[in-house]
Amino acid sequence: MGPQKTQSPAWTREQWADWVTQQINDRETVYATDPDEMMAAHSREVGYARDYHGREILEFLQNADDAGTDHTQSSKAAIVLIDSGFCIANTGSRFSPEGVKSLMISDNSPKRFRRSQYIGNRGLGFRSILSWTDCPFILSGTLAIGFSRSTSYVWMDSLCKRHEKVRDTVRREASAGTSHPIPTLAIPVTLDRNGNAPAFKPGIASFRPIWDLAQSLCGQGYDTVIGIPLTSARLLAEVKTQLSQLGGEVLLFLQKLHDLLIQTPEGTRSWHLTRRGQTATVSSNTDATSSQRWRLFRTSDAIPKKHLRPDQ
């Protein structure tokens, strides 16, 4: 699922840029030393995108919930869809360096150290959207980074020119049918306020309208906005189907979110959750006559050892 967002030190854009550059240099060292690490990372990324396909929106709601602050009734999320793609925005803690690194390296989420506090803790949910987009991006405080399949391809080609061992391994993979075996999320690019960077190549026309939409949501007070420019018009219907299946009751299964807004070209729906003891009320902000009251019951126990792996 998603990476942890924490209230990390207030880094400037320049500090984030320096940090991202160092992380990419580290990736080069790892891949140049053992190119099979790059092949394995690519295979994991492709596999996770396939395995999570069909539940992308739920994964992002879980991420938004994990970023929510405790002991408050104000944590909120918004999903705004336009013809070019969509944004998911939330209030709460912002991305930390550890959270960004968990995108670059799978199964490395800092949430794994506090599993009981988060719905997700493996840093995998973000990868699910790679079946929808070639160039997702994140705005979170002073952090503005983008990922692009085209950018990662260019970076890998440059890596091959500098390292013979990488070049030979990539040729071997190409002969087996994989031309660019590099994970897209391993190569983030720091973006300026206009969504540009010398090394960033979005590759699709839908990037710009989604960037503008994300900027608008930041201006509305959301702390983190993730932009998903869609790679084809066909995917728009798929996203609409997932959104149509969501209702206010999804808030019952989240821990911190109390407000959810879904806006599509067809209209706007939004809900507010109020908890009092074992009672929860989900009211619609767009339909004053719609309100649901639920009784919640929670049971917890230790997982039987027979259902655990030996290392758990």
Can you walk me through this structure?
Helix 1 packs across helix 2 and helix 5 (149-162) crosses helix 6. The radius of gyration is 20 Å and the shape is globular. The protein has eight helices and ten strands. Mean pLDDT is 89; it is low at 1-8 and 109-122. The protein has one domain (13-270): Heat Shock Protein 90, CATH 3.30.565. The protein is of the alpha+beta class. A hairpin with a 6-residue loop joins strand 9 (279-284) and strand 10 (291-295). A ten-stranded mixed beta sheet has the order 5-4-3-6-2-1-7-8-9-10, sandwiched between helices. The relative contact order is 0.17. The longest helix has 21 residues, at 13-33. Helix content is 35%, strand content 18%.
Q: Can you count the helices? A: 8
Task: Please identify, by name, the CATH architecture.
Answer: 2-Layer Sandwich
* Sheet with most strands: 10 strands, mixed
Oligomer classification: single chain
Write down the Rg. 20 Å
The residue fraction in helices comes out at 25-40%
Secondary structure class reads alpha+beta
Summarize the entry for a quick read.
It is built from eight helices and ten strands.
Give the helices and strands, then pairings.
Elements: H1 13-33, H2 35-51, H3 56-67, E1 76-82, E2 85-90, H4 97-104, E3 137-140, E4 143-146, H5 149-162, H6 164-175, E5 189-190, H7 207-219, E6 224-229, H8 234-244, E7 259-264, E8 267-276, E9 279-284, E10 291-295
Question: Which labels suit this protein?
Answer:
ten-stranded mixed sheet; disordered N terminus; alpha+beta; 312 residues
